[in-house]
Write the structure tokens for this entry.
Amino acid sequence: MIVVDASVLVKVVLKEPGWDEIELDSNTATLDYALVESMNAIWKAIRRSRIAEETGKTLIAVLKLIGSGMLTFEAQNFFGRGLEIALKENITIYDALYIALAEALKAELLTADEKQYYAAKNYVEAKLLL
């Protein structure tokens, strides 16, 4: 099992470099707000004219489909441990919660966020996508 954060989902949905090497399936876990974070990235891509609004609407459907095929956990179940990690590693609570999920599941964390990757290595196996 692997845990992915929003940066990985965004890579796949927006077809950023390396997206085609990412496998998301029923053995992939994430947090409930990863889909919201990914939606925000779609919104930004539209606002910055990287993609057309119609394309963005299509990508929303793609994101929902990807999300429905993965295991999704409620972030609130990891608040305590997430806060501990965030404070110790000086990272955002958003990033720390993914680490806490990976730790709880004894899973590898897959991220495209370098700072999160270096913090995660102190707790779980982690892989950085460039």
About this structure: The mean pLDDT is 96. The beta strands are 2-4, 28-31, 71-73, 108-111, 126-128. DSSP finds six helices and five strands in the chain.
